[in-house]
Write a structure and sequence with these properties.
Keywords: Coiled coil, Membrane, Transmembrane, Transmembrane helix
Largest sheet: none
Radius of gyration: 77 Å
Number of strands: 0
Strand content: under 5%
Order of helices and strands: HH
Shape: rod-shaped
Structural class: mainly alpha
Distance between the termini: 161 Å
Number of helices: 2
């Protein structure tokens, strides 16, 4: 707006100067024409025509200058309008840029805070990882120890099973020996009964002397493998060659 006003003032000032110059030219012509000299009328008319031509030329030049000045003023106004639009657009862009910059600054602050939080989280996770690593090492040691204990328990179990099988085999052998001893005991008891009956008949005959004493008490039965069977006893008769019972038991 200030530039438009100054351009309008310049144009008006130029027009005023041109008008004053025209009036000054006319006054000069009039004064020169009325001056007391000895010029002829023809010469005066010729000078007047020349001055008129010059004046008309000056008017044309002034008009052309005025039109040129108006064209310059119009171009200057258009340029000012264009500059004003450009300034307005640049102002809007500047405001938008400032707003974007403010948003970016706020976003940077948020990102910085997020980075701090993430760093704290990373440190916490690192500590957790270290703790888990140590716990994992302890667990692995515990697993190795349990694996060793399991292996030892497995070996002990196998040993117990082997001992159990051996014990069962010995038990079956002892039962077989017990049955054999019981069979022998029954056979000896039957032979003893027969011997007692035969001896009674011999002792009750004519010329018989006193009855011999009974045989001594039999010792407990000992198995062939050298182990005493608990709760199992048998009678094993030992007869000497001098015993009168020897002839009552065949095969002794």
């Amino acid at each position: 707006m200030t530039e438009s006003k100054s351009s309008g003032k310049c144009t008006k000032l130029s027009l005023v100067v041109l008008s004053l110059w025209s009036l000054a030219s006319l006054v000069t012509i009039v004064v020169w024409a009325t001056a007391p000299d000895f010029k002829s009328a023809a010469q005066c008319r010729s000078d007047l025509r020349e001055l008129t031509v010059q004046h008309e030329g000056s008017k044309v030049v002034c008009r052309k200058n005025h039109e040129a000045l108006e064209e310059m003023v119009r171009a200057e106004r258009e340029q000012q309008d264009s500059l004003r639009a450009s300034i307005l657009e640049l102002t809007l862009r500047l405001n938008l840029t400032n707003h974007t910059l403010e948003l970016s600054r706020e976003e940077n602050l948020v990102l910085i805070s997020n980075i701090s939080v993430l760093q704290d989280s990373v440190e916490s996770l690192q500590q957790i990882q270290d703790n888990l690593t140590s716990q994992l090492a302890l667990k692995e040691e515990t697993i190795d120890m349990l694996q060793l204990n399991l292996t030892q328990a497995e070996h002990q179990t196998q040993t117990c099973f082997s001992l159990k099988e051996a014990t069962e085999a010995q038990t079956r052998a002892a039962e077989s020996q017990t049955k054999a001893c019981q069979s022998s005991l029954g056979y000896l008891q039957r032979q003893l009964q027969k011997c007692k009956a035969s001896e009674t008949e011999t002792c009750t005959g004519p010329g018989a002397g006193p009855a011999p004493p009974p045989p001594p008490a039999p010792p407990p039965l000992i198995s062939v493998c050298g182990r005493k069977e608990a709760g199992l006893t048998a009678v094993h008769f030992l007869f000497t060659l001098q015993s009168p019972w020897k002839r009552c038991i065949p095969g002794l």
